[in-house]
Amino acid sequence: MREFRRLSVRAIAKPSMRGALESAMERSLERRARAIAEVPDWEALRDRAREIKRGALEELDTNLEKLKANIEARGGKVHFARDAREANEIIEKIAAGRGPVIKGKSMITEEIGLREYLMERGHEVWETDLGEFIAALAGEPPSHITTPVVHMRRAEVARIFERELGVAYTEDPEELTAHARRFLREKFLSAGVGITGANFTVADTGSVVLFENEGNITLTTELPRVHVAVMSIEKVIPSIADLPVFIKLLPRSATGQRITSYVSVLSPPREGGEFHLVILDGGRRKILEDEEMREALYCIRCGACINVCPVYRITGGHAYHSTYPGPIGAVLSPMLFGQGSHGDLPYASTLCGACYDFCPLRINLPALLVKLRQRGGGLRKTVFKLWSNIWASPAGYKASLKAARLISRWMKL
Amino acid sequence: MDEALISKFIERATEQDAEVMTVGAGTAAEAIGKLARESGLKSFSVAEGTAPAVAEALKAAGLSESTPPSELAVTGASWAVAETGTLVIKGTRRQFITAETHVVVLDGAKMLDNLDDIPFGEETAPFLTLVTGPSRTADIERVLVLGAHGPRRLVVLIEKP
Questions:
Q1: How far is B111 from chain A (nearest CA, A)?
Q2: Sheet containing A207-212: which strands, arranged edge to edge?
């Protein structure tokens, strides 16, 4: 239960990381603010996205059935996996005897530990996103969901490349990127299986939608004969007509870009290719049935709540000892991975509410964190139960903020 | 042809590090030949439906035609989106993503205002890629580097009558 405290103390003692994180997060928020300012109907867009996700989950089984039917009508295969173990086994069977595996960056495959699972069974597996590639070479998990090695300074990358790739020491990001490009291009050309996540899947067209900047995901879906996409159940949206809403929302919230360099809208398999979609529950049905917590499944993994979180900025991602760091990680991890191992994370927050303001889907993260604290049990339970009741309504939430301001004024804080 | 949309596209695509120029109808091949000569690239491929004059101009510039991957790839685009400086490209993914330089010949009449105007619903092409600027990464200390895994250069030639 005290894992976050232990790891954050250790992280804070590493001064190099703090400067890097603070400035990276700050810059990404500035870019986000600029990108959002040019959208005249940003707030309406957020409402629309929330409504789409709410509806999509309401009809989840219908949407998943449609998705499956549309993909299978084209000759693709759809597999449902109850948990990480099942998903890994399915993917391993598909990949067996098909040659080297290349991977696009995907949180879901991090969550199920797919790379390690495949490598332990003798598969050659390469992460191809630059940040993930660096993290994998370093033997570390990513520390952020959109920028995996945001905690690392360039000298560290230089040493890792020198040691692992046998290239001359250079701290120049351009040269380092070129080394990775050359090294991985060969892997792309010789791989038999490409594995990606899916930012969205579309029920009415059976499409898989992937956002990226590097081009590695396009290569991963295009060069190997076999493409395996892995998604969790909540990624499906009902209609392709809803896609523009998310294209406008996701990159702006994530990296402050109007759009990423590549957005792939795929209806696989391609001619002569083979396609598998693996749909993972992994504890999400439980969240779905939990009316109070359900909105946690609206998350589109943009990372805006992480970028703005004052706790994350100090501790970095590794302190959360979970695939999902920051406020959304503190909400999802205890529910997905267990109260026993991750029950400390709901306390890794000041409840300042910045995450709620920044979440494009308006997920009330502070309220969910308070509820989880309350459910966690122990002495503090009663206090958080009361708090949670107040925060259950928007009026109560606003009133509590007003009260806090008044109290701090009286106390001259 | 909507001049305001074209100007907006040029502004936005340029902000995303694409190189954009307008050419008269039927003169794209000439422009591509010139660009290829200056680039020093050695091999090229063209997408299905590209005017035969393009391949001729590239051969005349000393490049040899190859199946992808080639250093230079020429494709068309079904639409472009002014709001984001985006090209909507059907198929040919393998061809353009493996190239060093991706040249897109775009009919100026195919300019859309924003992402809502892409007819996703009517589109039956199995593979659509929205391409905005060249391949990029900022994974190392947030320093922008072009040509992470895909093309280092994206050149857009807008054909006007």
A1: 17
A2: A236-237, A200-202, A207-212, A262-266, B127-131, B86-90, B79-81, B111-112
d(CA A136, CA A139) in angstroms, rounded, equals 5
Residue A225: is its pLDDT beyond 70? yes
DSSP string across A132-177: HHHHHHHT---SSSSSTTTT--HHHHHHHHHHHH-PPP---HHHHH
Is the pLDDT assigned to residue A379 strictly greater than 60?
no
The rounded percent of chain A whose pLDDT value lies above 70 is: 95
Residue the block writes with tokens 């069977």: A93
- Any CB–CB contact under 8 A between B84 and chain A? yes
Residue among A136, A168, A171, A220 nearest B97 (CA): A220
Q: Express as a percent the part of chain A with pLDDT over 90.
A: 81
How crowded is residue A185: how many other Cβ atoms within 10 Å of its Cβ? 16
CA angle A373, A374, A379 (to 5 degrees): 95
Alpha helices in chain B (DSSP H): 3-15, 28-39, 52-60, 93-97
pLDDT computed for residue A378 by the predictor: 60
Q: Which helix (H) or strand (E) holds A189?
A: helix A173-190
For range A387-392, the mean pLDDT: 76
The CATH number covering residue B31 comes to 3.40.50.10420
Domains and CATH numbers, chain A: 3-38+285-410 (no CATH), 60-282 (3.40.50.10420)
Determine which of A60-64, A331-335, A385-389, B117-121 has the lowest per-residue pLDDT on average.
A385-389
Separation of CA A42 from chain center: 22
Q: What's the CA gap between A279 and A30, in Å, rounded?
A: 35
The pLDDT of residue A20:
75
How many helices (DSSP H) and strands (DSSP E) are in chain A?
A: 21, 10
Q: How many CB atoms lie within 10 A of CB B114?
A: 16
DSSP secondary-structure letter at B8? H
Residue of B nearest to A24 (CA): B142
- Which ipTM score applies to this complex? 0.97
Structure tokens at A292: 């109070």
Of A215, A248, A270, the CB nearest to B127: A270
What's the token pair of residue A156?
């560290």
Helices (H) and strands (E) in chain B, counts: 4, 12
**Contact (CB<8Å) B129/A218:** yes
Other C-beta atoms lying within 10 Å of the C-beta of residue B141: 18
User: What is the span of the domain harbouring residue B62?
Assistant: 3-160
pLDDT of residue A173 exceeding 70, the answer is yes
Could you give the number of structural domains in chain B? 1
- Asked if A277 and A195 count as a contact pair (C-beta separation under 8 A), the reply is no
Chain A residues inside the 8 Å CB shell of B138: 147, 213, 255
pLDDT, tens only, A282-339: 999 999 999 999 999 999 999 999 999 999 999 999 999 999 999 999 999 999 999 9
Helix boundaries (H) for A237-380: 243-254, 284-289, 304-308, 310-315, 326-337, 339-342, 354-358, 365-376
